[in-house]
Inverse folding.
């Protein structure tokens, strides 16, 4: 539905590789995370088991999305970043917090004209949001500066490696 809406608004996006990678990654996440939660045995009890499960599911999900996206990335770009699962493990929770703060901020900004308490709360949320997004930018910049972070996918053995990884992925999901 979202893809149809995007293409209805901008038909030229059908040629955009970024759109197709985003749609493929989102589809992968929507299909894989529920399967991972089910395969790992339902909900964990206790704070430490839940945290470990969150980290495990996040890493495995990120690796699976990376594996699924390897084929189109090899075709279109010829390289991939091996640090993306690590970046996702750090940046996705921060992005979730930033989005939550942003959603809380919207009604407070609207109500800030009503009373001073709303103005103070919205200011504090703006400061927190600014700090979190600034940290995200710094982390992403540091990870992008790591030497050897990109792996070339233009070697002769890459199609065979991708075939093996795809078989492993299918075996894991079935």
């Amino acid at each position: 539905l979202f893809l149809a809406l995007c293409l209805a608004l901008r038909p030229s996006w059908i040629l955009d590789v970024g759109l197709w990678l985003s749609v493929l990654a989102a589809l992968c996440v929507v299909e894989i995370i529920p399967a991972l939660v089910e395969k790992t045995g339902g909900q964990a009890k206790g704070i430490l088991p839940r945290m470990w499960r969150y980290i495990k599911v996040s890493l495995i999900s990120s690796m699976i999305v990376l594996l699924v996206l390897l084929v189109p990335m090899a075709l279109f770009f010829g390289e991939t970043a091996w640090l993306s699962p690590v970046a996702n493990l750090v940046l996705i929770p921060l992005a979730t917090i930033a989005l939550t703060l942003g959603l809380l901020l919207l009604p407070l900004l609207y109500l800030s004209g009503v009373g001073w308490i709303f103005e103070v709360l919205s200011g504090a949320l703006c400061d927190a949001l600014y700090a979190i997004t600034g940290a995200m930018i710094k982390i992403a910049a540091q990870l992008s500066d790591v030497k050897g972070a990109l792996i070339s996918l233009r070697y002769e053995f890459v199609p065979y490696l991708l075939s093996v990884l795809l078989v492993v992925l299918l075996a894991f999901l079935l």
Summary: The longest strand covers residues 79-81.
